[in-house]
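Give me the fold.
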Amino acid sequence: MFTHLTALENVMIGLIKVKKLNRQEALRIAKEALLSVGITEDLWNKYPAQLSGGQQQRVAIARAIAIQPRLLLLDESTSALDPELTVEVLKVLEKLSKNRVTMIIVTHELGFAIRVADEVMFMEDGRIVERGPPEKVLLNPEKERTRIFVSKLMELYRLERNKIL
């Protein structure tokens, strides 16, 4: 986010500069986008430093979806967040998924990936090791490298296969 712009201005800037929309139309779309990710009017005029990490992530997502991209790329969008804020952001992404927004998401959130993904790819060193339906790749991987990685994540988060859904 641009630190010198409010949440609302952060969403509007791409609409004005890139999409070449007039200010009034950009304002309308920005407000809709912010509301769609749970950023209410009381936060629109706050600067990034005045927002929580989860609120900042949701404003960034609103900025991305406001321009109506064909594909949304997200790289560990919850990595720096505490558990409560992580849940907030994952709910927004789940809502986008239900609205059929096409996304490529890099994540270590296994339960989220199983619930939301149509396809999962496990990658290492820039190469796809295994790909397929999330239940298969994450709960019953074929490749040894995928099994090791998933088991380490489950150990780290103290997850059981039957309890991550």
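The mean pLDDT is 92.
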